[in-house]
# Entry
Amino acid sequence: MLKKLGERFVDESSLELHNFLAKPLAEKLEKGLREKDVSDKLDHESRKGRVPPHDAGTDNEWTMRGPPHKSRFCTLNLPASSSTSPEDNTKAALAIVASADSTPAQIMQALERTLFPSPAFRTWLYIVAVLIAEKYSVKARRFRPGLDYTLATSDNTQSILDVVLGLTPAYDNAQEEEKKGKNKATHHGSEEDEDEAAGWDRGDWGGWEVRDILCADSASLVKIHPQ
Amino acid sequence: MAPHEGDEDPAVYQSGAPKKEKDHEHKANGTSNGHEHANTNGSNKNAHTEYEDADDEEDEEEDGTLLTVYPGFNRLMLALRDEGVMRFTKYVSAAAPGSVWDVSGEYEVLMTEDRGEDEDDTGE
# Structure
């Protein structure tokens, strides 16, 4: 199975694996992330399509970073653990992952600082991608609705293996349908009524990630779209 | 910097056709295996081939979008990004139901002989 993945990756230079995290952890994390959006008033109910204030979602766990001419999104701001040995680091991460009290930020930090950098993970990358991963940089990221983005950059002079674990909770269609049912009397026609399956992959909400080639001979041409 | 409304891109530095047309292409193109899309300008199916043809004058579109990945939960995406390949995350619209979350790692890599490529020297 892993060999097939490797072959596929060599052919296409990309691969997407579903259900990467084990189910109990994934469910805990998904629930926590939804709740975090609600408590930060970034969910749909709180905003109803309005752009939130710039500091929404920033607190002792998440901090906003820029500069805005390159990007704006939030990264983790949790204190680094005091343990320095890889074994202690791993134990601490396993404890966080197992605990029912861990916040999504704590879990994502365990992924960012323990799983992704681990030799075991890099060995797995070697098996799957047939590439030896050396220097690395890992960030847990939050892109808030109406606020966050990154701009196109291609400052890498080396080949880079991007490994991105998407953790955006699925759009809850059932909940929306229920609300529509309740509001039927006052609900005016909208796009959502005709839409059977609203979701991130419709592209209407942005947030997707693109890889794109800059043509060598047009490197000096830039096109800036008016705002 | 004021937040952006709607689907208008903030400044995107790239050559070629306006971004709006490509947005529609992203939606139109799809593969049968779910959320992984490779926009191949219609003719080429092989991402590697398209990459080498980037300078081909015959290509109508100069953008050569290799891969578009939509937000999803618990999906690990691996992609090899060569020199000169751009990467960005599209602005998340205020209409979105919540935040887009991920853990994003970038690893400098050495090609191995198994891949039949020349070895890159990453150095420090």
Notes: The CA atoms of residues 66 and 82 of chain B lie 11 Å apart.
